[in-house]
Amino acid sequence: MGMPGVGKGTQATTLHEQLGVPHISTGDILREAVRQGTTLGRRVKGILEAGQLVPDDLMRELIAERLRQDDARNGFVLDGFPRTSEQVGILDAVLSQLSISLDGVYLLTAPEEEIVRRLGGRRVCPKCSAVFHLETRPPASAGVCDGCGSALVQRPDDTEEVIRDRLRVFAEETLPIVETYRRRDLLREVDATGAPAQVAQRLQQTLEGVS
Ligand code: AMP
Fold it and tell me: What are the tens digits of pLDDT across the range 18-57?
């Protein structure tokens, strides 16, 4: 968990590589649906572009279907879900049906000014979802994805006005559920300032229970 732009996607990708479990990003799944123009994609396109949250009922179906897939049997890194108190209940219900429980909830933290700077420079690969940054994580060749060679793009919700809305949605809807997981004694906070490799190291130490 963490504010938009704090580095959840980047860190979840690293964890996916280290742990060999799928990285399940609800944002990536929704963006892919928009790109492919599916029924779901057509319903959520405007919502994503405005930085608002997709209704919980649509998210219920999406997450239940994804977590039931075979590759999630031995664990997964969930990124971007849950984001509302209703979604905490949805996740609890799905996990209980599958007889699995969460090992931990990791909250990445950074000051808001750093977030706005990061989001403004963020560029993503529309094909393989790799994340780059103009200053801190530039691709080897300008404007081109290191992984698959596609042209990098700026997410439509990374413009300054939409960034402000997304931060407000995070404060109103998502911050309260951080407290839910703190009360459940599952929450671990990780300082997400600095280079991605440094953050990955802190996250790794937290995962191993080393402080
Ligand atoms: P992200 O890539 O996690 O920043 O998500 C991008 C956008 O997808 C968000 O601004 C929402 O519009 C939508 N989205 C992703 N995850 C959720 C969720 N759990 N609940 C509602 N909307 C979501």
Answer: 999 999 999 999 999 999 999 999 999 999 999 999 999 9
Distances (CA, A) of 87 to 78, 83, 108, 180: 13, 6, 19, 12
Residue 122 annotated among the catalytic residues of the structure: yes
Q: Using the mean position of ligand 1's atoms as its centre, give its distance from the Cα of residue 210 in Å.
A: 31
Give the pLDDT confidence of 102-147 residue by residue, as tens digits.
Answer: 999 999 999 988 888 888 899 999 999 899 999 888 999 999 999 9
**Residue 14 belongs to what H/E stretch?**
helix 8-19
What kind of architecture, by CATH, is found in domain 8-110+162-194?
3-Layer(aba) Sandwich (3.40)
For this structure, is 164 an active site residue? no
Q: Report the separation in Å between the CA atom of 53 and the middle of ligand 1, taken as the mean of its atom positions.
A: 6
- Residue ranges of domains in the chain: 8-110+162-194
